[in-house]
Amino acid sequence: MPCMGAAKILLDINDGIATITNNNGEKHNAFDDAMDAELFEVLREIRGNPDLRVVVWKGEGKSWSSGRDTGALKDRNFDLPHHGLMDRGQKGSLQLLELDIPVICALHGWVMGGSFQRSLLCDIRIATPDTRFRLPELTYGVVPDLGGPARLFQMCGHGIASDMILTGRIMEAEEALRHGVISRIVSPEELDATAQEMAEAVVKSPQLSVKLARRILKRLGDAETIASIGDENLAQSVINASHDFAEWRAAYQEKRKPGYKNA
Description:
By secondary structure, this protein is of the alpha/beta class. The protein has helices at 33-47, 82-98, 113-120, 148-156, 158-167, 173-178, 191-204, 207-240, 243-254, and strands at residues 9-14, 17-22, 54-59, 103-107, 110-112, 124-127, 132-134, 171-172, 184-185.
């Protein structure tokens, strides 16, 4: 079946496998609002197709996704108030938790910010040796808001989650493997083929068994993640109305050091 969807998010369906491709390689697959909308529409299409058994999510170019296209924020069309934008983004991303079929992420290059968090909402992540993970949100004056803190806490524990979120440091692929953030490291040449083999293994298993196995796993982690997202929404709303966030934006635009007042 030929690729479908808009230019920056491609969807291919073949033999029960849906392949999502981030197709904004010139910008390391950084997401803006339009690309978000394309992704959310693709996820709705997948949810509405009862013939699908598994999803593979990959990226073109040098990175799976470097997160938010910060360059597009200055031109953002605020068609909704801040809380509405937050709600739209979170509900769209939470479709990943609502899918009845597993999602396998084939990661490479940068996996950052909201895109990193979205990958954490998926079932399985494999990566190439060059893959680097980062949550830089605090350096932009905000907090991770798509369930990343809860998922990292579940996988890595308090210390690693705190380190990555509070300092914005980079996690390399080998460390990610040690902490269970990813389950395999494969060569760049083998990445797509390995993800395809994993997807085909899911397709070969009884659909009911796959569904019930996932239900067991999801009950162990999804409730805490969804609760965390509610807290993150509240935190972002408070931050958006704060003096310090206004000061961060002004300093960022004026290329100067911000003067925070803890208010």
